[in-house]
Amino acid sequence: MNVKIIENVLEANNYIARKLQQDLKRRRNMMVNIIGSPGAGKTSFILKSIQFLDKKCAVIEGDIASDIDSKKVASYGIPVVQVNTGGGCHLSAPMIDAALKEMNLEDTIIFVENVGNLVCPASFDIGEDFKVVLSSVTEGDDKPYKYPAIFKKAKAVVMNKMDLNKHIKFDKNYFYRGIKMLNSNSMVFEVSSTFGEGMKEWSGWLTKQFEEKCPL
Q: What range does the domain containing 185 cover?
């Protein structure tokens, strides 16, 4: 019985996710699902990314509670909608559907900051064009080995807080071997959201993804 219930929930979610993908394409929007642990620096990374992008951008902020991050995003004049799950460990397609209806966007890169978690978001499509895992050197070098599901599904992996690498014991080669073992096609970027290191390369790649989906 429990298995059937879970299957039904996933089927309903995926049905809405497919409809969202169609709507995003029609409106020439690209949605990027940013997934990372609490403290990985997701909000700062999104804000720094937007600074480097010459495209219209918007943000959907997912949290269990509070609007701390969405207020921070709004203070930069960026369109943002807060989604609180009330205890849920991930965003779902119906939540994203409701958020997008509030924004009415076109020709926009939409960043979704999922709830801080490397487990639950791996199982739920939200209509995104692709998933990006944001990790940081302060979290350790074993994340791909401990949380393989999300690294398998990520189109890109971003290593944040590289400015701290010289102060922390972090085996970069070990980390990258784990990624390539799970997903040899995944792009890998090294950035510092604080100082902007690596953001030009990341934003250039993201721009290319948008222009390939939404050519002029």
A: 2-213
Structural domain count, the chain: 1
Is the pLDDT reported for residue 41 higher than 80? yes
Nearest C-alpha neighbor of 160 from the set 198, 122, 130: 198
Q: Which residue has the tokens 């590289």?
A: 162
Nearest to 191 by CA among 180, 207, 203, 208: 203
Q: Where are the alpha helices (DSSP H) in the chain?
A: 2-26, 42-52, 68-74, 93-103, 143-146, 148-153, 172-182, 199-213
User: What confidence tier does 21 reach under pLDDT thresholds 50, 70, 90?
Assistant: very high
Tens of pLDDT, residues 119-162: 999 999 999 999 999 999 999 999 999 999 999 999 999 999 99
Residue keyed to tokens 């030009």: 200
CATH number at residue 63: 3.40.50.300
Q: How far is CA 121 from the centre of its chain?
A: 10
Q: Which residues pair with 188 in a beta bridge?
A: 157
Sign of the Cα pseudo-torsion (147, 153, 157, 161, in order): negative
Classify residue 41 as left (phi > 0), alpha (psi -120 to 50) or beta. Answer: left
Say if pTM beats, i.e. exceeds, 0.90: yes
Closest alpha carbon to 108 in 26, 191, 201, 186: 26
Distance CA 176, CA 122 (A): 19
> What pLDDT does residue 92 have?
97
How would you class 208 by CB atoms within 10 Å of its CB: exposed for 0-12, middle for 13-18, buried for 19 or more? exposed
